[in-house]
Amino acid sequence: MSGHSKWHNIQRRKGKQDAVRGQLFTKLSRDIYNAAKEGGGNPDTNFRLKVAIEKAKQNNLPADTIARTIAKATGTLQGVTYEELLYEGYGPGGVAIMLEIVTDNRNRTAADVRHIFAKRGGNLGETGCVSWMFQRIGRIEIAREGCPLSYDDLMLTAVEAGADDLREEDDVYVLTTSVEQFSAVRDALEAAGLTLEDAELTFEPTTTIELSEDKAEPVLDLVEALENNDDVQNVYANFTVSEE
């Protein structure tokens, strides 16, 4: 398992599906808000907004919510002003954790996040304490089952488009790119007739700590609690879980 924010194999299923759905909609709306605020409200000229809208639609965010969020961000509707922040800290066992935050009240969010860390054996750190252990990359996922290209052909297509790496993770191919090449690679893959499972700019650890499942459990508890906070957009950590 990688230190990516999805925690595919081990993260436990959460109950209260309506609450989870509401949290997801909040996060998707904030992605759209910040993309539109930064690059304007036209997805044809704002690739970040295009990606955010597509992701929202895939998760059934209502069209009127998308439109209203863009209107707020571009100033045609009055509403709450959000800001994007990066928080850094340590989990149990010295695991490095980075958080992407979108909040309308940084004092409230800092207090809430600090409490979550402290209650679960970690601590919220100072700016720069762990960010040097991560790099900003583009990450694109393609389902292995049904992929019309062989691994070698997919590698050739990806490299020609500017991708840095291709690897297999569980049931998907994962392509990584520089931030600058992300859009070009994504467009080239779609032009080749490939269906993308996910495409996003993310943080990836440069080095990882391997933990047994027992030792990983408190870290996963912390990650889950952080992800459940409405102001936390994404959680990144530099650990893997041993399969032994």
Topology readout:
Layout: H1 17-39, H2 47-58, H3 63-73, E1 83-90, E2 96-103, H4 106-119, E3 123-124, E4 134-143, H5 151-161, E5 165-169, E6 172-177, H6 182-191, E7 196-205, E8 209-211, H7 213-227, E9 232-237, E10 239-241
Parallel strand pairs: 8-10
Antiparallel strand pairs: 1-2, 1-3, 2-9, 4-6, 4-7, 5-6
Family: Belongs to the TACO1 family.
GO molecular function: DNA binding
Protein name: Probable transcriptional regulatory protein J2S03_000557
At a glance:
The protein is α+β, with helices and mostly antiparallel strands.
What would you report as the Rg, rounded to the nearest angstrom?
18 Å
Structural class: alpha+beta
Q: Please, what is the oligomeric state? A: single chain
Strand content: 25-35%
Order of helices and strands: HHHEEHEEHEEHEEHEE
Count of folded domains = 3
Main location: cytoplasm
InterPro entries: Integrase-like_N, TACO1_YebC-like_2nd/3rd_dom, TACO1_YebC_N, Transcrip_reg_TACO1-like, Transcrip_reg_TACO1-like_dom3, YebC-like
GO molecular function: DNA binding
Keywords: Cytoplasm, DNA-binding, Transcription, Transcription regulation
